[in-house]
Amino acid sequence: MWGDLLAAVALLLVLEGIMPFLSPSSVRRLLARLDELGDNALRLGGLASMVAGVVLLYLSR
Fold it and tell me: Do 20 and 27 contact (CB within 8 A), yes or no?
């Protein structure tokens, strides 16, 4: 189980690093736009991300 968790975290780090590596200026613009969003919009985006992750995990297992 711990090996699976470690593999998932490692894959997350690889995927999160792709965009800053390929296009740092785009990521900078995206982060500036995210700073302009309200708390509720960020919470909704976080919730949608978590639900999508749970669904994908369920479907993959």
Answer: yes
